[in-house]
TrEMBL record:
GO terms for molecular function: ATP binding; kinase activity. Residues 20-103 form the Maltokinase N-terminal cap domain. It comes from the Bacteria. The keyword Nucleotide-binding applies. Keywords: ATP-binding, Kinase, Nucleotide-binding, Transferase. This is Maltokinase N-terminal cap domain-containing protein. It comes from Cryobacterium zongtaii. InterPro entries: Mak_N_cap (IPR040999). The lineage of its organism: Bacteria, Bacillati, Actinomycetota, Actinomycetes, Micrococcales. Pfam families: Mak_N_cap (PF18085).
Length: 221
């Protein structure tokens, strides 16, 4: 369960992504414009310390882009290259925001969801002293078999990141996790692991009513 807060955030997520996304090698769209937030989904951190959110945006007339981020209450040692910004949260205080492909908490969460048939976290928010369940704007599910063991977060030093056209490829221990960055007409995950055992996280949102592959997790044969 992901607990949301009625809070003021500076910079806003839109401002943050409008500045950061165009600097990335996988970016497709109009630079210099405010991005549009289409949908988002979250995963739970088993330790309850890290906010894990994936935001789907467009930049002008460009295709849908997928941007997973993590929110932490302190810097993640060894992950300076993945730091997007710091933000001020009126409830939680200062937060360090990371490109989640370099954060062990996200990698473990998305791999677990894909490999064990997991889903996005339930969203709850406190309104007038009552906990209210908020409808998700994106629904995701893994193709794996339920009941499997959760993936252990890798050490930061074990994470290797490579950018490819439309995707980010992460190697973490024995796992290879491929995040589709550009969700355009072509499925950038289609031929990423033809000879490896793998599972896929797929999802839908208001502008995408049919399942779309979002993340591929390849495992040792």
């Amino acid at each position: 369960m992901a607990l949301l807060h009625q809070a003021d955030i500076t910079p806003t997520k839109i401002d943050m992504l409008s500045r950061w996304a165009p600097t990335q090698p996988w970016f497709v769209g109009d630079a210099g414009v405010s991005v549009t937030n289409l949908a988002a989904y979250r995963f739970d951190d088993p330790d309850g310390q890290v906010g894990i959110e994936t935001i789907l945006i467009t930049a002008g007339a460009g295709p849908v882009l997928q941007i997973p981020v993590t929110y932490r209450d302190a810097p993640l040692a060894g992950a300076d290259a993945s730091l997007i910004t710091t933000m001020q949260h009126s409830v939680l205080g200062e937060r360090w925001v990371y490109d989640a492909t370099g954060d062990p908490a996200y990698l473990a969460a998305v791999a677990t969801a894909a490999l064990t048939g997991g889903h996005q976290a339930e969203l709850t928010i406190e309104i007038d002293g009552q906990m209210v369940v908020r409808e998700p704007t994106a629904v995701v599910a893994g193709s794996g078999t339920p009941g499997g063991a959760a993936v252990t977060p890798p050490a930061v030093a074990e994470i290797s990141i490579r950018q490819e056209p439309g995707a980010t490829v992460v190697t973490a221990g024995t796992l290879r996790i491929i995040v589709a960055r550009v969700l355009g007409d072509d499925d950038v995950l289609a031929n990423q692991a033809p000879d490896s055992a793998h599972e896929v996280l797929a999802g839908t949102w208001s502008d995408q009513p049919t399942l779309r592959a979002l993340v591929l997790v390849a495992t040792p044969a």
